[in-house]
Amino acid sequence: MSTLSHWFGKLLYQLALIACFLLFLMVLVICLDVLLRNVPLIPAVRGFPATNDLSEAALYLITLLPAPWLLRKGKHIRIDIVLQAIPRRWAWYAEWAVDLLGLTCSLVFTWYGIGSTLEAHASGELLIKAIATPMWWWIVVLPVTFCLLAIEFVFRMRRLLHGDIGLRNEIEAYE
Question: Which residues make Cβ contacts (< 8 Å) with residue 5, sequence separation at least 6?
Answer without folding.
Answer: 155, 158
